[in-house]
Specification:
Oligomer: single chain
Number of domains: 1
Number of helices: 6
Strand content: 15-25%
CATH class: Alpha Beta
Shape: globular
Radius of gyration: 19 Å
Structural class: alpha+beta
Distance between the termini: 20 Å
Order of helices and strands: EHEHEHEEEEEHHEEEEEHEEEEEE
CATH topology: Double-stranded beta-helix
Number of strands: 19
């Protein structure tokens, strides 16, 4: 399958020359409009449009990989639907990621020794202090929003071993579409959220772990490869937004989008054997309830977070 995408041509919020050819430059109106129109025209219409049936996620066929690449090119996310049994191994998950250029795992204090994190309700220990390891709802965020600038999370894999008895669905919004909706509403929102001090996550210290310093940075940035990156959390505590009125207005506008009924927000509950691959798009999770039984009756997902961006093989680029 041929994948047709618009390339990200470079960073910049103004200036001259090639920088102004980037759709993410506020000075490049024509480039932005062409990119925006193409992006929105090819966006999936329903959650089902994200799903690709695969026989074995650890050994994709060229057709399966192409179908997943098509969805990634159109909206930065795709869902594979593999068999519930046998359960995909952790090495199988890593093999899947390698098909899309994902190698460098974002190991953290709560991941296992191989860098992959099992997501389930923790019964004790440090994990009980963090919402991903409870059955409580997770607010809108991108992963690793507290990471250092040189360790940003560029891609995520989520694999469902066993879903909850009830709940646990994700809402997904391509961060590039969030950018579009904000820029179309007011380009000043993009300028404000691109400030280097827009969002601060205060440092954290856990016993036996090196302290994490304050994480200060923009919401929107353009990476050296020219792709748009977003770090965001809707948490209300342990976060400091720049007091500038423009930043406050931009944050409110973004929250309004996330609260809206826009058709660009896609909602899906992963079933056993299904998995999500995405370029760290905006996502949340609803509250869930397990069956009351541990082990096979409990919700369990594997999560792998990567510093690498998703790489699509054999893509044909299209500049409108």
């Amino acid at each position: 399958m041929t994948v047709r995408i618009i390339p990200h041509q470079g960073p910049g919020q103004g200036g001259s020359g090639l920088l102004d050819e980037s759709p993410f430059s506020l000075a490049a109106t024509d480039a932005y409009v062409r990119w925006r129109d193409h992006r929105l025209a090819h966006h999936p219409r329903t959650p089902g449009d994200l799903i690709v049936e695969v026989a074995n996620p650890a050994a994709l066929t060229p057709a399966e990989e192409g179908a997943l690449a098509d969805r990634l090119a159109r909206c930065n996310m795709a869902v594979y639907a593999g068999p519930a049994e046998p359960i995909l191994s952790r090495e199988g998950l890593r093999a899947f990621g390698r098909r899309f250029g994902l190698e460098r795992l974002d190991a953290n204090m709560l991941s296992d020794i191989d860098g992959i994190t099992p997501l389930s309700v923790a019964e004790g220990g440090t994990r009980t202090r963090y919402i991903p390891y409870t059955n409580r709802p997770l607010a809108w965020h991108t992963d690793g929003y507290y990471n250092a600038p040189d360790a940003q999370v560029r891609a995520i894999l989520l694999h469902c071993v066993h879903p909850a008895a009830e709940g646990g669905a994700n809402a997904l919004l391509d961060h590039e579409v969030a950018y579009i909706l904000l820029r179309d509403a007011d380009p000043a929102h993009i300028a404000a959220l691109s400030r280097p001090d827009a969002m601060t996550i205060p440092g954290n210290a856990e016993e036996g772990q090196p302290p994490r310093p304050d994480s200060v940075g923009p919401v929107f940035s353009v990476m050296p490869d020219g792709r748009l990156h977003m770090r965001y959390t809707r948490r209300k505590t342990s976060i400091v937004w720049a007091p500038d009125p423009a930043v406050q207005a931009a944050v409110a506008a973004l929250e309004g989008i996330l609260e809206s009924d826009t058709s660009y927000i896609l909602r899906h509950r992963l079933a056993a054997g299904q998995g999500l691959i995405c370029a760290n798009v905006l996502h949340n999770r609803t509250k869930f309830e397990d069956s009351g039984e541990r082990g096979d009756g409990a919700r369990l997902l594997y999560r792998a977070r990567y510093h690498d961006p998703i790489h699509i093989q054999h893509q044909e680029t299209l500049v409108p």
